[in-house]
């Protein structure tokens, strides 16, 4: 009897432990947010969340209010939906909400890169030094040269201004921005034709990885897809290897600075290759899709396109591409385009949908703007989804689903920064780049890269949709939460160089 009693006791302990791990036994404690575990042990609401994050969170918000905890694949996420309460989460003076550890796990899984102590500070230091001020101006000039090479060819003008060229707008924007960004950051060989071919081949592979990315992060790939991801990772590690870097000139000082840091810290070359893949993804994964939305909105709103072109004429003059030349204008004009700035900010409001995550270290009290206090449990993850709670809030942005190119302009033409919710001025009125410790360090480079591309397109090209009545496509639901959204289907357009002078 004693023996069987011990066996039954052991089984009870194991069963209880398994149930705990599956989340079955978790109960809401006093002062904690509403808890919704879902009907499936351990998985919880994971399938509904992954199917359409936007619709899922909208439903949970309506059901539970501004703060709620949900179970997603064995992990508990507390979503905070009141933007007036974001401050304590984003600032976190007590450092009880950690972003770095979560990011380190993610980059290890996706890129195979083992982050070392100090990497996060190093990346921000390099970005401050080379992606702002004079360093950014130098990179802007390089980007202009790269865009000229990609769009016009090595001879200076590969497009015939007498005929139209047709393409998918999403493919065109993503392709051009990826190749120009890749060449600007990772340098050239002596053979520009070869550089363009390699950049095109890399883009094809990058898009394959990009399509698998959301389900890869959620571990939803089938066996063949897992093997394909492994193949793509190895391909990019080789293509971006430090060994191949030695064969190139003009590698950006931003990349060079970070690689030197890793070398001095004794990081193996193979791990540096993985770091390069991570930085390529970070720098090029969103600029193409954002530029697609920007050009599509301009083509669907002729008054906006006209306003941007008039501003471009004011700052650039009547620019025309001369025979066998590259694009030629001062990149400093990017500082004098308030209309284009508003267009890009409005595009990011409508198109950027990142999720901001913080891991809770030790139980933590979150005080809401209303005065209500909630206990956040150690080990849970606090999540913000600004697209739904900020960008689509009609109180902050009237008619939030409508593209308004001048939404971020004051009547006098200056940038509008005063937005309100419930009568209170709100600091975080858009959050396309994240915020606080997790704000994108390359946001200024990305913004200038996209502005430069859009300026070139509206200044030097005639553009039109193949079908002017084609609606703006809905968002691919798999892309919610992963930076800039992508369209569910392609949009065809035509373009041609304006006649040379």
TrEMBL record:
Its cofactor is heme. Heme binds at residue 440. It comes from the Eukaryota. Its main location: endoplasmic reticulum. GO terms for molecular function: heme binding; iron ion binding; monooxygenase activity; oxidoreductase activity, acting on paired donors, with incorporation or reduction of molecular oxygen. The chain crosses the membrane at residues 6-25. It holds the Pfam family p450. Substrate binds at residues 109, 286. Gene3D superfamilies: Cytochrome P450 (1.10.630.10). Keywords: Endoplasmic reticulum, Heme, Iron, Lipid biosynthesis, Lipid metabolism, Membrane, Metal-binding, Transmembrane, Transmembrane helix. It is found in: Endoplasmic reticulum membrane. One of its GO terms (biological process) is lipid metabolic process. One of its GO terms (cellular component) is endoplasmic reticulum membrane. It is a single-pass membrane protein. Coiled coil: none annotated. PANTHER family: 7-ALPHA-HYDROXYCHOLEST-4-EN-3-ONE 12-ALPHA-HYDROXYLASE (PTHR24306:SF0), PTHR24306. Belongs to the cytochrome P450 family. This is Cytochrome P450 family 8 subfamily B member 1. It comes from Canis lupus familiaris. The lineage of its organism: Eukaryota, Metazoa, Chordata, Craniata, Vertebrata. The gene is CYP8B1.
């Amino acid at each position: 009897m004693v023996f069987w009693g011990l066996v039954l006791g052991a089984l009870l302990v194991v069963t209880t432990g398994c149930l705990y791990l599956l989340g079955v036994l978790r109960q809401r404690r006093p002062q904690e947010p509403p808890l919704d575990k879902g009907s499936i042990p351990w998985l919880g609401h994971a399938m509904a969340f992954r199917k359409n994050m936007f619709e899922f969170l909208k439903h949970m918000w309506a059901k539970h209010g501004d703060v709620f905890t949900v179970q997603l694949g064995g992990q508990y996420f507390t979503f905070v939906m009141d933007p007036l309460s974001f401050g304590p989460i984003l600032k976190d003076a007590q450092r009880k909400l950690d972003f770095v550890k979560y990011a380190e796990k993610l980059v290890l899984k996706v890129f195979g890169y083992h982050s070392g102590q100090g990497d996060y500070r190093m990346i921000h230091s390099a970005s401050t030094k080379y992606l702002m001020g004079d360093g950014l101006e130098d990179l802007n000039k390089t980007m202009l040269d790269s865009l000229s090479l990609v769009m016009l060819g090595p001879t200076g003008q590969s497009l015939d201004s007498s005929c139209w060229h047709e393409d998918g707008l999403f493919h065109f924007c993503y392709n051009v921005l990826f190749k120009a960004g890749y060449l600007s950051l990772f340098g050239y060989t002596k053979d520009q034709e070869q550089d363009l071919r390699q950049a095109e081949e890399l883009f094809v592979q990058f898009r394959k990885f990009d399509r698998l990315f959301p389900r890869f992060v959620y571990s939803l790939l089938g066996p063949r897809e897992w093997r394909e991801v492994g193949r793509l990772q190895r391909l990019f590690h080789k293509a971006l290897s430090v060994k191949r870097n030695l064969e190139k000139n003009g590698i950006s000082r931003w990349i060079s600075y970070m690689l030197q840091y890793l070398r001095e810290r004794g990081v193996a070359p193979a791990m540096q290759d993985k770091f390069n893949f991570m930085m390529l993804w970070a720098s090029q994964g969103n600029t193409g899709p954002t530029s697609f939305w920007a050009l599509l909105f301009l083509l669907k709103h002729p008054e906006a396109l006209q306003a941007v072109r008039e501003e471009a004429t004011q700052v650039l003059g009547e620019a025309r591409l001369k025979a066998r030349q590259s694009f030629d204008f001062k990149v400093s004009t990017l500082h004098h385009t308030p209309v284009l700035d508003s267009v890009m900010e409005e595009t990011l409001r409508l198109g950027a949908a990142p999720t901001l995550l913080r891991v809770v270290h030790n139980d933590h009290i979150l005080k809401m703007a209303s005065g209500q206090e909630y206990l956040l449990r150690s080990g849970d993850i606090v999540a913000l989804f600004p697209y739904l709670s900020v960008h689509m809030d009609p109180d902050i942005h009237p008619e939030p689903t409508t593209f308004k190119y001048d939404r971020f302009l004051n009547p006098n033409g200056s940038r509008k920064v005063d937005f309100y919710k419930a009568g209170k001025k709100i600091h975080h009125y858009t959050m396309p780049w994240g915020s606080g410790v997790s704000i994108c360090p390359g946001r200024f480079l990305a913004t200038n890269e996209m502005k430069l591309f859009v300026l070139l397109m509206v200044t030097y090209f005639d553009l039109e949709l193949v079908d002017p009545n084609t609606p703006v496509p809905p968002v691919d639901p798999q892309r919610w939460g992963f930076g800039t959204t992508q369209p569910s289907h392609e949009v065809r357009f035509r373009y041609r160089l304006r006649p040379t002078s």
